[in-house]
Model the fold of this input.
Amino acid sequence: MSVYPYRSACPKSVWRALITDAKSTITLAGYTNYFLWLEHPNLAKVLKRKAEQGCHVRFLIGDPDSEVTRRREETEAVPLTVSTRIRITLAELDHLKDVPGIEARFGDEHIALSAFQFDDEMLVTPHLAKLVGHDSPLLHLKRHQDDGLYDRFAYHVNELWSAGREIWRQA
Done:
């Protein structure tokens, strides 16, 4: 396990390697996932290619119109609002909505914890009070045993996914 005091301190090369090396599952369960589009050029093309190769890609994001989002905007009190960041992700996802193997859902229960799953590795960000995501710590977890820390977070992500609402249906 690696630990970074800030999500922004985790090298982009770690993210890129995890995305590139994932074979079966990529789940991006950040409340906005906004930073991914900025920090990873050609992310949409990479994810489309991953899906075409059989990797299941899932996005779980907050609902830009929910009360949870509105309250978080008040807490963060930054010009680039949570709902705007979510809408930027929705615009990016719109380019992927017809790609088999890519799904997207709304969910508000992960407002305080972002989890990004890549097969048997995961990046987890517990959001600290009043801080935006890049200022919160990040844990890099690897699956080493049944019911270890990785499995506990993977279970959490799957529960959030199950409770989520589809953003769009694939044809």
About this structure: The chain has one domain: 2-166. Residues 59 and 84 are 17 Å apart (CA to CA). The first helix runs from residue 12 to 21. Residues 2-166 form a domain with the Endonuclease; Chain A fold (CATH 3.30.870.10).
